[in-house]
Amino acid sequence: xVPAPGRPAPGALSALIIRCLHGLxxxxxxxxxxxxxxxxxxxxxxxxxxxxGLASPQQAEALRHSLGLDRxxxxxxxxxxxxxxxxxxxxxxxxxxxxxxxxxxxxxxxxALGASGLLVAVVGGLALGTLAAWRKRSLWGRSAASAxxxxxxxxxxxxxxxxxxxFSTLLSGRAASSLYALRHLALPAxxxxxASAGAIGRxxxxxxxxxxxxxxxxxxxxxxxxxxxRLLWHALRPALPPAVSLIAxxxxxxxxxxxxxxTVFSRPGLGRLLIGAILQGDYPVAQGVVALAALFYTLSHxxxxxxxxxxxxxxxxxx
Amino acid sequence: xxAHPTRxxxxxxxWAFLMALLPACGQAPGQTETLRYGLTLVPTxxxxxxNASAELGIPLSSVYDTLVFQxxxxxxxxxxxxxxxxxxxxxxxxxxxxxxDVTFHDGSRFDAAAVRANLEYVLDPDNxxxxxxxxxxxxxxxxxxxxxxxxxxxxxxxxxxxxxLSQVYLGMASPAALQEWGSSEYQFHQxxxxxxxxxxxxxxDHLTLERNPDYAWGPSIYASDRASIQRVVFTFYExxxxxxIALESGExxxxxxxxxxxxxxxxxxxxxxxxxxxxxxQPLQYLFNTQRAxxxxxxxxxxxxxxxxxPEIVETVxxxxxxxAEGPLxxxxxxxxxxxxxxxxxxxxxxxxxEEAGWVDTDGDGTRERGGQPLGLHIIAPNWGSxxxxxxxxxxxWQALGASVTVEVAAGFGALKESQAAGEYNLIGVNFFxxxxxxxxxxxxxxxxxxxxGYRDSRLDExxxxxxxxxxxxxxxxxxxxxxxxxxxxxxxxxxxxDYVNLVVANTRVQGLRFSSQGWFPLLxxxxxxP
Lengths: 319, 531
Description:
- The complex is a heterodimer.
- The relative contact order of chain A is 0.16.
- In chain A, 78% of the residues lie in helices and 0% in strands.
- Chain A is mostly helical.
- Chain B has helices at residues 5-26, 57-60, 112-123, 161-165, 175-185, 240-248, 260-269, 298-306, 310-318, 347-356, 387-400, 413-422, 440-444, 458-468, 474-490, and strands at 34-39, 68-70, 77-79, 82-87, 93-98, 139-146, 149-154, 196-202, 206-211, 231-236, 254-255, 272-278, 284-288, 369-370, 373-374, 376-382, 404-410, 427-429, 494-498, 501-507, 510-511, 528-529.
- Chains A and B meet through α2, α3, α5, α7 and α8 of A and α1, α5, α6 and α12 of B.
């Protein structure tokens, strides 16, 4: 039977289901490792909670009991997992606020930053990669290739400070602080996106160079497909699936990149929430953020698979 | 040629628009009314009754009034929401007569029932208070005697009680608001009686206060009757490198915890003033583990103390702004005793002490041995407050003395406690801040939560207990803490490094910046912004 055009074959569909199950397993593993890792690596949460309050040993034990931290670890893990299945991530040890509410307060800011960062990464990466492959021998092509290489190498903590300095020097004093949106979204998104743009650019360049040299591009040219942009699209389409997979990876990477970006730019967000929760021992919050990150990671990979299937018909036949 | 009339009009209006925009860029509307204050870490929870962070007190000590206030100059307690008070001779009963003219920001009246509601809220185990609940000693009951008189009863005397009641953690909140919002949500809807009222808190983003125009019951330590700056907006700068930039770009007017290098540079450049704020409590210090070789030997602890050039370390790591610490309490703390200075840097004396204790480099490899065992030291340093840099310099000093030294950096308090619990350390960095010297009990009393020296001495325990409880007389308490300082030094229980100084830098528009006796908290009511 010939599959209907444009729709994944049954084999691809079951592959997707397996992918989903893998994703769930990954998410469970991440959450479990976090649960035990925090308690082994970062120590007793009560120590952090009491770091600035001078309790007597008796008062400390009373607080431990009222927070439920004296229960055996397996019991705590079990109630965490059952809560997770119900969509209940527990409550912050410090404030008693539901973890979902704490995360909900920070999520929009991280989503805005991550999405803008991803936009910068994708647009920048495609532009750099295409330019580098298409005009390989010109100065433009070579500069694009070097820019992509440099962008991947610079850490956000460095580019961020440079960007803030440049921003406040160019627009001195008060003017700088009144351009709120630019300072608090565009600049961090640029800094965050640039590193990923470099990586995406290099993959696009590699794929495009290969397909530009391939027989079917030569054939297309012989058939009279006009050179220039149309030919470029011809060559670019098969070069995209690896880039799309990378973009999915980069989306997850951007999520981790927000940690540093948010700190450097003093932006609210999940990254800072996570770091604070780990350092101060607010484990339910840290676990919640990791659970969410695992879910996001899984979903972005499934999405990438779907997009690749849509882009490259050759992938559809393969189980 | 005639200019096109509509085009000319367009140019003119564009020009006018740009001109109108220009001052707006340089000066946002109402700018003289708004002070922007940079905070350095985002507290996890900002209800002072339940959470413990010092950072939360920077905004909130102006939202709340306390029953009494401590004069930052003299250390004396002065009337606040309580006009006068009497303490029974046995120290078990405190009767406070309250002001009758005080209203909360929500319009409700402050009275004796409010005091009881606040202390009950703090002590309710379901609210998980992380600091305030431990500041009340053995508080047994809070009973209103009449509408404006309230009695606090203790099971045992507790000298720091007035000090506790003067702090933001026991600031008086509107019982109606506590009731309405409950312990988790109240932090976003705080209602006090102070010179500023709480407007909004968005975690990791900002916290806004607005002037309380009705404020008329300020304590004598406030120079102004009510606040002059309309609005104070607090934002967060956790990354040290971004703080000076925030000042220079005009994003904030004031910010604390500036690095010494940046403070000097900002002041030199003009337009900024540095306020070195001394924080009472314990200095940055390393506790010796007296239960583990080789620091179980007093002579070794003394030798290590004398082999360290503390002024040199302080100068290297902290620059010119920090005093060298001279005991278990920083110099600005009640009970600090100038009569027990620490032994000065004396390398030959240190070498003599080690050799007397039997530690000699027999095989000439640069490390001393005794009975075939090398002189090994393990230091646990917290990753905050420049502790890792200090630990490195200690390592170098003791290596020069012939010890083999390892340094372990603990990321966060949980990790510090975890490393401590393993017991494999000779020195560990830990210190607490506070105005009352009773905080020493946690680290120096053998049953303290942080009794990490492992040292047991009934005389030290009894002295600390007596200073905490049986006497309320400040002169007698000071004598007892001098005794504690003497024992600590003679037994070489800890190595004090430097008194904590918070470097606050403000631009020159900010006038009248003063801090409470705890050091961290600005008296916002007295601040003014020059035009």
